[in-house]
Amino acid sequence: MDKYKYFNTNWNDVMYRDAAPQYKTNLSISGGNARARYYVSFSYLRQEGMWNSEWTGQNDGYSTQHALNRYNLRSNIDIDVNKFLNVSLDLGGRIDNISQPAATTWTLTTMGYVENSPMNPIFCPNGEFFFPSDNDSKNGAALLVGSGMEKNRRRNLYSTVTATGDLGSLVPGLKANVTFSFDSYETFQARQTADINGYYYNMNEAVSDVSEYKYTRMRTYAALSNPTTTPREYYYNLNMNGGLSYDYTFGKHLINARAFVRSYQNVVRGQESSHRYLSYNAQATYAYDNRYIFSGNISRMGSDNYADGERFATFPGASIGWVASEESWLKNSFVDLLKLRASYGRAGQAATGAGRYPYQGTFQEGSGYNFGTSQSYTEGAYEATAGNRNNKWELSDMLNLGVDFDLWNKKIYGAIDVFKEWRSNILVNRSTVPTLFGLNAPQDSYGKAESKGMEITLGHRNNIGKFNYYVEGMLSWNTNKITEMDELTPDYEYQRKTGSRIFDYGQDYLGGRTVGGFNMLIFDQWASDPNLVATSQQDAIDHPEKYPYHVSSNGKQTLGTAVFKDLNGDRQIDTNDKKPNGYTNIPELLPSLRLGFEWHGFDARVVLTAYLNRTVATRENMAYSAWGKMGTHEVTKAWGYYTDDPTDSRNINAKYPRISNTFNSIDSSYPYNENSIWLVNGDFLSLRNVEFGYSLPKTLISKISLTQCRFYFSGYNLCSWSHMPKGFDAENPQSYVWNYPKTKSFSFGVNIGF
């Protein structure tokens, strides 16, 4: 009977298979003659998911496995109509057919696996799927078999027609260009639900025979339903571009210039009107003797989203360059390239997140009234948000200084760039609008910020006999600060945002924040002495030796919970003790390294990348989950795992709070879970890509009309190193609970050219 009472189910092994197949095929054909050229490319990709096929393949006639089938077709034809006119047509299309289980990935991963107890079985003794009494989703195998299926179709269409007229007979180097493009995107969903029989039985019930167990029905079988179809998204873009270009060289002088008009329209399915843009553009470059380069450009761009007088803005730019390696005193030396350059320009962004026509007020239904003797209610309308004519183009002014160099024929080469950016007209919520205004104040193009950074590339290429190799490193660094946001004087200086880097000043564990900065409580120590627990704020004031009073403790803080730093000195821990700390989810430093070699047909390359100066959010269930009532391998680092003795060094140096069947309100529930226990160093180094290849000798393959035949093996996302515990992915640290797990991919293939 023990086999029906005691279980040790590895839900990871139950839910996932070790590997999933992926197939990719590409075929391209090109050809032509002096008058016409063509190119056609077709590719097919099939990628399957990691769900265990023991469950996804149980249904007759359909599979619940995640699967992507992608078809891609591109074609180009280029025709010289005559010596004055060239016409080209580019056509492309992509179709994605995606199938997946009807149960969401969150339900399958979180409830079906992570929060499911290993003491739960897959099946009841009667052969039906088992579900615990507290949740009818805690059996991922059953959900894969019986939840149904969902199919999504995505279709993209791309088309571009270009006509180029050569006006060189009128003005040498002059051409006229006209381009028209149309592209569209559409998604369509078909969903079919089902269900499966599922039962609960009390495995601890005292029975002498398996037939004596009593079952409680948790789920009831339902056949696969007819499809419920939903058009999910649709849009198309129209892009027209026409103008003149000039390219002419005489003596040591080169002139390149272009002037054109562009019209762009984005049409989205739904109630919103199309987004329309119009721009007038000019660009010119002058180079003297391949040494001195001057370039300038200007654009007058307009968006229909803004009020009259703000729809158009002007964006100029200029750059200079000096190719010192072309000077007589440096030419033909070990310096193959030395180029100094500088540029300054203004760019604009119309998609600021302001919504459609923000200069107009918005009205909503509501605030109705009861009329007549029957007092029947009639819905009304009210002005919800006022319009703002100061909602306009966001501006970016950028200064860039750089140098490119190549010494001793690639023995040492690289580039160095430094930049400074001034952003203005950033949408902010004005803090100085009084509540007497009476409406929701609209966002205003008032904010300002500055960014600065640098990018360095340094490489070395050489050969030892027939052994060719290269080493190339890159480093990118950038930081920023807010210079204006209409901020009121904060209660505490450490909460001031102006003058500090851009955070989001809030936290979204699910990744919804674009910047991902965090206000957090700062951990000080674990509560270890009951005599030091303050019963009130006044008690903490009267007894400075005690811990600061935590407002959610009700004067009964449990040993093994966190004591945080009292930043404002009021002897009380609350949200006023939160401060911006650490970095954001976006790394400040991005180093990478590329290595490779070629030798007698063999070749290899390795790519390593790192994210540094980065803070990421983890969850309160990293050690022990109050949802699933079970621990991870990190539970041994939690306070109280070994003993309740607060003087035990394993408790003093614990990494996580006291184990509890509930997430305690001191340090593990919102808003006090926003603290330095769970917001951690997100730096990592990743072995991103490794590829090995072998190309057959051209003297051999030319006999069968081949120009290339290369066999290769490639691996992606192979390994990473970080401060995170084993099994936790620093790139996406919540993938262990909320998301589909990170996967490695391996490819074997052959490239053949005719």
UniProtKB/TrEMBL annotation:
GO terms for cellular component: cell outer membrane. Keywords: Cell outer membrane, Membrane, Receptor. Signal peptide: none annotated. Gene3D superfamilies: TonB-dependent receptor, beta-barrel domain (2.40.170.20). It is found in: Cell outer membrane. SUPFAM superfamilies: Porins. Its main location: membrane. This is TonB-dependent receptor. It comes from Bacteroides reticulotermitis JCM 10512.
